[in-house]
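Aim 2, interim progress: modelling of the 3-phosphoglyceric acid-bound target.
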Amino acid sequence: MIEIIEGSPDLINRLREYGIIPVVSIPQAEDALPLAEALITGGLPCAEITFRTAAAAESISNIRKKFPEMLTGAGTVLSVEQAKIAIDSGAEFIVSPGTNPVVVEYCLKHSIPVFPGVCTPTEVETALGKGVGILKFFPAEPAGGVKYLKAICAPYHNVRFIPTGGIDAQNICDYLAIPQVIACGGSWMVKPELIRQKHFDEITKLTEDAVAVVNRLRKDANKIG
Ligand code: 3PG
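Predicted structure of the complex, ligand included:
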């Protein structure tokens, strides 16, 4: 029996509660706090700050200091060096597009929740073999979407997924309706051009809309249940 390390129940509950992890690339560190404020005002105090920009570490650190109530993780972590910088900056979880064994091992050693990316059964088993039980399913839509993910879920009933890639307000409910999905990652409410142009009000509006979609799904599910 493989022991699965997946992070604290508190973290999992928060991810389930939010249902969405905004995937953010911040061009300049000065944009981090207004971006965080826009997400919090929109009702989604959560972000995965990707290491696709040089401002990632400073952004994470600034957000953690100013908004400790916001769940802030690091994304696109491709090396142990980036994982170390992310943890030192205060990241509360680490996400990668693929399953890099050395990154996963480093995160587990430092007791930081890690959600490595998978796309095939072999990759799921590689991640499981490392003891990780919450996996980013990436790139969700191009890989085959909901139908493909349901097929992947079937043999791995103890694995939970965070589908990401091509998810938006139109299709998120189809993913969240899968019991093994705890949240979806997505950048549709925090597109880089919105941040570059400092359209933080628009980010709040798109975030409110996204939260409303998830809340509607939950209300409907409660009615049926
Ligand atoms: C990611 O890195 O997780 C994806 O780029 C986010 O996917 P999206 O931009 O299609 O939402």
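The mean pLDDT is 95. The chain has one domain: 9-114+168-220.
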